[in-house]
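Long-time lurker. I teach an intro course on protein structure, and each term I like to show students one example going from raw sequence to a predicted 3D structure in C-alpha cell notation. This year I'd like something fresh instead of my usual example. Would anyone be willing to generate the C-alpha cells for the chain below so I can use it in lecture? Attribution to the forum is fine with me.
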Amino acid sequence: MSADPASKTTHFGFEEVAWSDKARRVRGVFDSVAPKYDLMNDLMSAGMHRLWKQFTLSQTHLRPGQRALDVAGGTGDLSRGLAAQVGPQGLVVLSDINGAMLSHGRDRMIDAGLLQGIGYVQANAECLPFADSSFDCVTIGFGLRNVTDKPAALASMQRVLKPGGQLLVLEFSHPTAPGLAPLYDAYSFRVLPALGRLIANDEDSYRYLAESIRKHPDQETLLGMLRNAGLEDCRYHNLSGGIVALHRGYKY
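-- Reply from a regular --
Happy to contribute to a lecture. Here you go:
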C-alpha cells in the first residue's frame, strides 16, 4: 500500500517539511532575497557565477531565429545571453515561479534594451505551460535544487524541447578537487549567512541556500535523473573543482 500523499515530506535545507509546503517556503526565501539577489551573487561567488553562466551559454549551439526557454531564470542573466544568440527574430522566454524574481528579471532585460523577441511567464518548472516540442534549448541555472519534484521538472523540460533540442542544467554540486570540501563547507556555513545578514538583512535565507546545495543530488545521480527523464547523450562538466556542474542532455 502506498503512503498517503498528504504525509509525504521533503527537505527544505536541512529541515524536513511537508511535500506540499516546500514551494511556499522557497517562495518566501526568494521574495526576501530578490532585491539584493544580483549583488549577493557577485559577493558570494566573487563574480565566478558570471563565468559559469558564460560557459553555459557557450554550450547552447543556438542560432539566430531559434527559440529558447530559461526556466527559473530569476533576474535574467542567462536570458540576456540567450537573447543575444537568437536575435530579435528568435524568441527567449524567461520563466520563474516567483513573481518578485520575474519582475526583477523583466526590468533588467528592459534596461539592457532587450524589447523584441522576449516573453515572460510565471510558471512552475514541474508543469511548464508550453506545448510539446516548443524550444530548441532549455536552460535552468541554479534553480533545480529549489524544485520539490525534480524528476517531474526534468520531464517537463524534456517535453517542451524540440527533437534535437538540448537541456542545460547549471547547478551547485559536490566538490571533487582534493581538500576542497572542508574549505567549501566552512565558507558556506559561516561566510554566506554572515553576508546575508550584513548585506541583505536575511541570514536565514542564505543559510537555507547553503543547506539546499548539500541536499542536491551529486553529479552522477543527477546524470541518471536526466537519462530517466528521457534525455540522451547526457554528460556533465565540473566547474571550479566540482563546486558547480553543468549537466547536458538532448531530446532525439
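Some talking points for your students: The chain has a mean pLDDT of 91. The beta strands are 9-12, 15-18, 67-71, 91-96, 118-122, 135-141, 161-172, 232-239, 244-250.
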